[in-house]
Specification:
Layout: E1 4-12, H1 17-25, E2 30-35, E3 42-48, H2 51-62, E4 67-74
Antiparallel strand pairs: 1-3, 1-4, 2-3
């Protein structure tokens, strides 16, 4: 079965980038987390084997305090 790879862009409260990143790293399916500069604050790479699992990861991430907005980008390859 082919893995689903998605990138999630997070905008977080000022000064909370690293604490949010640490919480996101603990979630199943998360393969990489980077604090970045620019319009978004944290980029998350997710690898799962179903859309249902992707939905669970995205929902878990959105429930973390200090996240203002998220955008999920599903990779085509």
């Amino acid at each position: 079965m082919e893995k689903i790879v998605a990138y999630i862009l997070l905008l977080v409260d000022i000064g909370k980038e690293y604490s949010v990143a640490e919480k996101v790293k603990q979630l199943n399916g998360v393969s990489e987390v980077k604090v970045v500069y620019g319009e978004y604050d944290v980029v998350v790479r997710v690898e799962v084997d179903s859309l249902k699992k992707l939905d669970k990861v995205v929902t878990s991430i959105r429930s973390i305090p200090h996240i203002i907005r998220s955008i999920t980008l599903v990779s085509s390859s």
